[in-house]
Specification:
With 377 residues, the protein is α+β, with helices and mostly antiparallel strands. Helices cover 25% and strands 37% of the residues. It is built from seven helices and 17 strands. Strands 1, 8, 9, 10, 11, 12, 13, 14, 15, 16 and 17 form an eleven-stranded mixed sheet that branches. Strands 2-3-4 form a three-stranded antiparallel sheet, with no helix packed on it. It has a three-stranded antiparallel sheet with strand order 5-6-7, with no helix packed on it. The chain is extended. The termini are far apart. About 7% of the residues have low confidence.
Length: 377
């Protein structure tokens, strides 16, 4: 079972939202502002209650459809079958009573009927409760601004894309991340050469090279290596949004989720460990290689890295996702909700591409042909 918690304004009863500018809870109806500390006690009581009971049983609660929540008979009476609700949950809004069908990993959302901000506390309790959260610092308007900047000065971008494309969806979502600490030790051997002398004798030019056997060893400590814990988020997309500044991470409170979407992890820390080990190994290898300088050629003969995983924490990081459509294709853009780093793939106008490439290719071909003609003949 999963409880729903709502954050109501004590003054007017409106749905409170986390304001990224103020870093406080704000009511959009009466403009009342509340410190996050005021909601810490509510969060602590919710956490203790969940830990004591193992699962909550309050009115207006939600169950996992077809599994530990509503029974098959209840689902059938409401017009849903188990196959339709596989991987989904039925949530009941405490304010208006509306039923919300959502993915079972959804942790925070907005009721589409009454607009209330709701947090599914069952997805953030016990082992599912994050240790930290990095609150949103940038608003939706900043994401739209960065999209426009992203489209500027793209010579191969179809001109009509800027005119025809429109934002189908923009949402702020807290993405689950595993944060790893690790220690690594590495060693490598390199075969290197260095030009030590040049001279001419008659019609011949002589070069003298010295050969060296270079050995490097080192130990590195890694702190706060992130790995996204959501199957829905492509790893390359999330890694492109890095870095996130963990110095701004705060102790998790469900109040930070109000007004945003949030997912709980569906990729375990054990599944992420391999990727973390790979990233640490690549960093050690690159560092060792970069320490070998002053040679004309460097070839790695052998290398060995051992990574020891240490602490692991669970955190939620802020991300703005924008989906835009053009000519039947969906293009997804993402912005780091903390730093503003913006990424996304764009379509290419192949007509413009060839108009730019072909003249240069012909020009370079003519120049090379003329040079070959004069040198040969």
């Amino acid at each position: 079972m999963s409880d729903i918690i709502e954050y109501k304004c004590p003054r007017c009863g409106g749905a409170l939202e986390f304001d990224s500018d103020l870093q406080k809870m704000k009511c959009p109806y009466c403009d009342s502002v509340f410190d996050m500390e005021q909601f810490r006690e509510m969060d602590r009581e919710e956490k203790e209650q969940t830990e004591q009971t193992g699962k909550t049983k309050q009115a207006g609660q939600t169950g996992q459809a077809g599994k530990s929540g509503q029974t098959k008979q209840e689902n059938a009476e409401q017009g849903w079958n188990d196959q339709e609700l596989d991987g989904m949950k039925i949530y009941t809004c405490k304010s208006c009573g509306a039923e919300i069908i959502a993915e079972e990993t959804l942790g925070a959302s907005t009721c589409p009927y009454c607009g209330n901000q709701i947090v599914m506390t069952g997805n953030f309790s016990g082992d599912l409760r994050p240790d930290y959260v990095i609150p949103f610092k940038l608003k939706k308007e900043e994401a739209l601004k960065r999209l426009k900047e992203h489209l500027k000065n793209k010579k191969l971008l179809p001109k009509v894309f800027k005119d025809e494309q429109h934002i189908d969806e923009i949402k702020g979502i807290y993405v689950p991340y595993w944060i790893f600490d690790a220690d690594a030790e590495g060693s490598a051997q390199y075969d290197t050469t260095k030009l030590t002398g040049v001279w001419k004798k008659g019609d011949y030019r002589y070069e003298e090279y010295s050969f060296f056997d270079v050995v490097r060893r080192g130990r590195m400590e890694f702190r706060n290596i992130p790995a996204d814990g959501s199957k829905k988020m492509p790893d390359d997309l999330m890694e492109s949004l890095e870095p996130f500044d963990m110095n701004e991470a705060v102790e998790f409170q469900t109040a930070y989720l109000a007004g945003y979407l949030a997912d709980r992890y569906d990729v375990s820390q054990e599944e992420c460990a391999g990727r973390i080990r790979q990233r640490a190994e690549e960093s050690v290898q690159m560092t060792l290689r970069n320490s070998v300088s002053g040679y004309d050629t460097v070839r790695c003969r052998s290398e060995h890295v051992e990574v020891q995983q240490k602490n692991v924490r669970y955190a939620l990081f802020p991300v703005w996702l924008l989906n835009t459509s053009w000519r039947g294709e969906i293009y997804t853009f993402a912005m780091n909700g903390q730093t503003g780093r913006f990424i996304g793939n764009l379509p290419v106008d192949w007509t413009l591409f060839w108009l730019n490439v072909l003249p240069r290719t012909v020009l370079y071909g003519v120049i090379i042909g003329l040079l070959m003609y004069f040198f040969i003949f």
